[in-house]
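Morning run. Coffee first, then this:
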Amino acid sequence: MAEEQHHHLFHHHKDDEKPVDQNVYSETGYAAETTAYSSGGPGGYGETTTEVFGATTESGIDYRKEEKHHKHLEHVGELGVAAAGAYALHEKHKAGKDPEHAHKHKIEEEVAAAVAVGAGGFAFHEHHEKKETKEEDEEAHGKKHHHLFG
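And here it is:
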């Protein structure tokens, strides 16, 4: 493969594009000697500086922000597992209590169980992406990772 591909669920960025959502702040320096307003002169508003906050590397990727994003999505997946599992148990209880509509409740239980499995797969995927991002961050910042058993 000549070109490295990153598989992400929601945000697709090419390697040469920078994400738009970087925190960029402009600050204006002010000299307190006189009250005259000028562009860059003494006593007025000085030059505008632009600072980008975050631990970006030469490639422009903020690995810590990306790792935090994947951790957040992993937790969303875990919440999906819990919610769908609880709903499946609720429908199982309803199937026993309501014999007239038991078939409907069994189907809804099965669907909820399938959703729980899917959410678990999503959480597992995001966990893997988080680990991969952490390893990329360590490689970008020069930390050595010794593979002793594998």
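The first helix runs from residue 63 to 97. Good start to the day.
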